[in-house]
């Protein structure tokens, strides 16, 4: 398991969850990825930006995209996705927990994110996660 930075102290009371490749480790064997994607509500984006700066991260906007990038002093890139999906508050209110104890999107919401991204790696992730999921999941 990769040692990703613990963002819980940085984001404290802002609802957030890990999305993307790192989130899949809650549902299948971890795969390699170069960045950590987190999802939070658009209304909390500016506050998260400020907190990352205060915690010593370098922060940069991504033009024409609903997210920003925070980079730790160790060079770890965190893509902070700022969204306003109709299901987002429910998803962030009831996240799953990965093997390291971090909040991750619950499987149905992670599948929605993968469907929206619609890249080959995302289709592969969905196939592996759903193949390992229980009937209840």
Rg value: 14 Å
Number of strands: 7
Structural class from helices and strands?
alpha+beta
Count of alpha/pi helices: 6
Give the overall shape. Answer: globular
Helix content: 25-40%
How does this model look, in words?
By secondary structure, this protein is α+β, with helices and mostly antiparallel strands. Helices cover about 35% and strands about 25% of the residues. The protein contains six helices and seven strands. It has a five-stranded mixed sheet with strand order 1-2-5-4-3. Strands 6-7 form a two-stranded antiparallel sheet. α5 (about 105-115) runs antiparallel to α6 (about 120-130). The longest helix is centred in the C-terminal third of the chain and has 13 residues, at about 120-130. It is globular, with a radius of gyration of 14 Å. The protein starts with 7 loop residues before the first helix and ends in a 5-residue tail after the last helix.
Write the layout of secondary structure elements.
Layout lengths: L7 H4 L4 E4 H4 L11 E7 L3 H10 L3 E4 L5 E5 L5 E7 L4 H6 L2 E2 L5 E2 L2 H11 L2 H13 L5
Parallel strand pairs: 2-5
Antiparallel strand pairs: 1-2, 3-4, 4-5, 6-7
Briefly say what this structure is.
This protein is of the alpha+beta class. 35% of the residues lie in helices and 23% in strands. The protein has 6 helices and 7 strands; from the N terminus they run H-E-H-E-H-E-E-E-H-E-E-H-H.
Primary descriptors:
137 residues, alpha+beta, two-stranded antiparallel sheet
